[in-house]
Amino acid sequence: MTQFKNFFPPPDALLEMETEEIASFLLDYLCSDQETKGLNFVSHSGFHLNNFVSGGSIIPYARDYNFDVDKIGRAISEAWCWLRREIMLAPLPSSMTGSM
Fold this sequence. Notes:
Layout: H1 11-14, H2 19-37, H3 49-54, H4 58-64, H5 69-85
Helix pairs in contact: 2-5
């Protein structure tokens, strides 16, 4: 996956942003990874909120800046939910777990 910190501002700036602003960074990040791998959201089931916020993307980003992973995870989770509410992310029809 593309380096998370290449798409997001430092955590102190990120945590001061509105959810919609964070969502735009998140969507750019998710789309860039799909373009890099030549995949699309319809055929790929690797994106799931729980895996994303507790997985390998956010942890190195938080540690690089010596920031609390849970605070960053919460902000990203809220942005993810905002994207779903705005129908910019949707679960795969074949997924019972809500994977994107």
